[in-house]
Amino acid sequence: MIVFLDKINAHANRILVFIGGACLVGMIVLTCANILFRLTWVPIQGAFELMGLFGAVVTAFALGPTQRKRGHVCADVLVNTFPVNIQRMLRALANLIGLAFFAILGWQAVKIGVILFSSGEVTETLRIIYYPFTFAVALGCADMMLVLFTDFIKEVLPNKEGGR
Q1: CB neighbours of 112 closer than 8 A, spacing ≥ 6?
Q2: Among 19, 65, 74, 99, who pairs with 148 as Cys (CB 3.0-4.6 Å)?
Q3: What SS3 class is residue 72?
Q4: Cβ-based neighbours of 137, under 8 Å, separated by 6 or more
């Protein structure tokens, strides 16, 4: 089961990293172009809106891959002094708490996305619809939940199929 979950995580994270990376490159190009155009006193219309929308996608799509690589900040100085079984229990508990947090966050993002979809809300300058970006944040939360669930299973079943 853990090997299967790891394969799903790896595949999903590759896709999200690619999309998030493309958005990040778009943000860089847009920023550079906007700086150049500002030199001629003609800034790019809607650059601020696009930066916010792309920033949401980049951030949401980086959650799962970063968690999978253990790239988030972890203050475990005290926990590392505990016996291994206590450390595993605390990591499992932290994964469960994170799973609950991102479940609530994702659920709320979906609720807001549905409201934005039904209202037809668009950005002020470029008239871009909001709801796809809100659903992208929910997708990023779902990916994070999958990674946290896999990490939880690895802590609970440490000697099974590639666990810790």
Answers
A1: 134
A2: 99
A3: coil
A4: 56, 57, 60, 106, 109
Residue among 101, 77, 103 nearest 90 (CA): 77
Query: Residue 89 half-sphere exposure, CB side, CA atoms within 13 Å?
Result: 5
Torsion 45-49-51-118 (CA) sign: negative
If DSSP codes are grouped into helix, strand and coil, which group holds residue 129?
strand
Token digits for 30? 């847009």
Q: What are phi and psi of 129, to 5 degrees?
A: -70, 140
What does the pLDDT look like over 12-67, one tens digit per residue? 999 999 999 999 999 999 999 999 998 988 889 999 999 999 999 999 999 999 99
φ, ψ for residue 70, nearest 5 deg: 60, 45
Taking residue 153's Cβ as centre, other Cβ atoms within 10 Å add up to 19
Closest Cα partner for 96 from 163, 149, 156, 154?
A: 149
